[in-house]
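hey so i finally got around to running the thing on that chain from the lab meeting. sorry it took forever, my laptop kept dying and i had to restart like 3 times. anyway pasting the input first so we r on the same page abt which one it is
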Amino acid sequence: ICVQMSIYTISSFLFAFFTQTSHLQEECFLDGKGFETLSFAKRQVATSMDFATDSPFWGHVSGGLNTQAIHHCFPSVSAMHLRA
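ok and heres what got predicted. didnt touch it at all, straight out
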């Protein structure tokens, strides 16, 4: 059970790290002006960011969270199909 809990702990840490990395960047914060006029999809893309979308390594390590912006528009599409 200790090994299983270790896996869950590491996975949880990585999930939290990659989701926050994709959302807590200066470019992801809108200034409020015009925010209400953006469509749902534009708001999702504007408030998250992708990184290393062409890297199989980062795609695997992050569990596909390196394509976070487009994932918000198409959440049911597998991360394997979201790569650039």
